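Quick one: structure for this chain?
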Amino acid sequence: MSAETMPLKIGDVPIGFPVVQAALSGYSDWAMRRIARCAGAAYTLCEVMLDQFLLSVRQRTRTRHFLYMTDDDHPVGGQLMGAEPEQFAAGARRLVAAGFDVIDINFGCPVKKVLGRCRGGYHLSQPEVALDIVRRTRDAVPPQIPVTVKMRCGIDESETSRDRFYAILDGAFAAGIAAVTVHGRTVKQRYDGPSRWQVLAEVKRHVGPRTILGSGDLFSADDCLRMMQQTGVDGVTVARGAIGNPWIFQQARALFDGRPLPAPPTLFEQRDVIREHFRLAEHLYGPERCGPPMRKFGIKYAALHPQHESVRQAFARARNCQDWTDVLDRWYAEDQPGVYPSPEIHRAQGECD
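Got it. Here's what it folds into:
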């Protein structure tokens, strides 16, 4: 399987390599997207944003990171979540004005507080409202801007839930959606149990030539390759597996091109990327505010270190730039082979992806 013979395209937006970075609530800001793109991700999505928030947000110091992007951040998707169809459309227009190349509608988030406010995966229980959101969003943005949908494979495993899922899927494509990303778990499952890749295969057979991206349990380059081989999806979106491991994209490119799996990055290679990620975060948040958002990345980067538990604890205690530098000086001072991160580290935490 070769990436050159399988270019991904979303509407009229050329992507190319079909392994992309998913939207991750609280993670996929400009700094993370830039690191992922340098590692080989041809397309990334911002963290999910509420339509109500987008209608009121201003480009102030404390909020500018939500809509921040640079010329080298394209193509980039803006993911939108909310409850009311009218506000979805207005929020989509705001994302277009901010410069996003693709508008992605979130019908997949399984977080309890999101469902309680009739957002995210809740919409899979109400096809009429979901399709109203899709049609209004598609009509609200210029025709050259693709609109996509992120879904789970239903609220639960009941026949009614399955019927509603396919009603939304077919209706979304009929309304002009360019692509749909399907996560192989139900909303009720959250992140429990394995992602059911056979459902992705069924969905792809159902839609034929229309574009389907797969999601769920992509923690290694081999997972990305196997999902595409086993299900026939047109691309895959890496979520939790990309946090603190941007190397998954270059490793996937190697496998897709028929080359051997690259060795894990050495400690010096990890150190350089971690340092660059912190520099980008400083630019985005400012030196005084970048510590907390970067701490959670440091904890995930630690999974590639041979002494990952000690390094994880060190990053967890870091509060500022000097603390961060001290961790790198102590734990990354001598070059050694790295390790592949254990999938269990990512499975232990579920983000809204």
